[in-house]
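Structure (tokenized):
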């Protein structure tokens, strides 16, 4: 019986050592291959989107402001102040 356990233990040690060495070699090769590979080509830069038309934004903001004024959310003074800000921008 002791001979059988000794044989099993030896097999386990050999298998564990082989696995460790194999993993270490794989990691080393992976790092070496990664260093040898050229970086992927950069994607071409897309031109920035054109800014939205200022007139359309102003018109939309003025419409929303007018709706708020009509609903009574804004007073006349608040409405005139905000309208001046929008028209000045």
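Design, position by position:
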């Amino acid at each position: 019986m002791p001979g059988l356990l000794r044989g099993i233990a030896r097999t386990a040690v050999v298998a564990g050592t082989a696995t460790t060495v194999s993993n270490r070699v794989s990691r080393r090769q992976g790092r070496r291959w990664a260093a040898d590979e050229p970086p992927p080509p950069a994607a071409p830069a897309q031109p920035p989107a054109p800014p939205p038309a200022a007139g359309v934004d102003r018109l939309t903001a003025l419409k929303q402001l007018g709706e708020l004024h009509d609903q009574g959310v804004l007073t006349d003074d608040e409405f005139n102040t905000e309208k001046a800000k929008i028209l000045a921008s």
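Reviewer-requested clarification: The chain has three helices and no strands. Residues 2-36 form the longest helix (35 residues).
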